[in-house]
Design brief:
With 257 residues, the chain is of the alpha/beta class. The protein has a single domain (3-256), classed as Metallo-dependent phosphatases (Purple Acid Phosphatase, chain A, domain 2). The chain has six helices and 13 strands. The strands form three sheets. The chain has a six-stranded mixed β-sheet, covered by helices on one side. The protein is globular and about 55 Å long. The two termini are 25 Å apart. The relative contact order is 0.18. The mean pLDDT is 95.
């Protein structure tokens, strides 16, 4: 039985996250024998958004598809690339007329992959329905013979789990991003979809979701929306590696990185 492996890495936070990828991604791909690398890059530029230079750095490091979330709109310089680069995604369930797209197909290792980026609605900016749009897209991509991989950028664990069961059997994997805290609930759902509530953050771990603790504490004490500051230090790569049956597209395993 032939299988393929996909490496999906969590929100890259600022320069420490990018340095961690630069140092460790190549060897990680070799160790895991990953056929495809998907990275959430929405926090790459000082913790908020992604710049064109970040996009090109990720590509040089071997990232196949870059996903994002609510912070994708923080840097206007990236807007032209959202339209021109098929492998740079913003959530598919934003209203029509905004820059970019939320689906990308890639052929590697003799296999056709589709990456679908969605954003949640609980305690998040207003978007269209990720359940309806996610299912419509997953059904279409599945009919085209793609292995469907979903990055669901959302706050609510309930919403993430519900979407995963909604797409169980249509998507090979549904992984959560956004909270920066890696969860320990990785599993394969009844119809063959690999799931984890959050794959974690690539950046400085011994801080407050990658940010300077002093600033985060001050924000909580005053309730003033002080802008978070990315912590300096050594970054750590976090995410999952997923093994998928190349014929049935059912997940065979999911392991935290």
């Amino acid at each position: 039985m032939k299988s393929v492996k996909v490496l999906m890495l969590g929100d890259v936070s600022g320069d420490p996250g990018k340095r961690a990828l630069f140092v460790g991604l190549s060897s990680l791909v070799k160790i895991t024998e990953a056929d495809l690398v998907v990275v959430n890059g929405e926090n790459a530029s000082q913790g908020f958004g992604i710049e064109p230079d970040d996009y090109y750095i990720f590509k040089k490091m071997g990232v196949d598809v870059i996903t994002s979330g609510n912070h994708i709109w923080q840097k206007m310089d990236i807007f032209p690339l959202l339209d021109s680069q098929k492998d740079l995604l913003r959530p598919q369930n934003y209203v029509s007329g905004v820059p970019g797209h939320g689906v990308c197909t890639v052929e590697k290792s003799g296999q056709k992959f589709a990456v679908l980026n969605l954003q949640g609605r609980t305690d998040m900016p207003t978007t269209d329905d990720p359940f309806r749009i996610g299912r419509e897209c997953a059904e279409k991509l599945s009919r085209q013979g793609c292995i469907v991989l979903v990055d669901f950028h959302a706050e609510s664990s309930l919403e993430k789990e519900a979407l995963a069961f909604h797409l169980d059997g249509l998507a090979s994997a549904v992984v959560g991003t956004h909270t920066h805290v890696q969860t320990m609930d990785e599993r394969i759902l009844p119809n063959g979809t690999a799931y984890i509530t959050d794959i974690g953050m690539t950046g400085v771990q011994d801080m407050v979701i990658g940010s300077d603790p002093a600033v985060s504490i001050r924000r909580q004490q005053t309730q003033v929306p002080i802008r978070s500051v990315v912590a300096e230090g050594n970054g750590v790569i976090k995410g999952v590696v997923i093994e998928i049956d190349a014929q049935t597209h059912r997940a065979l395993g999911i392991e935290r990185i």
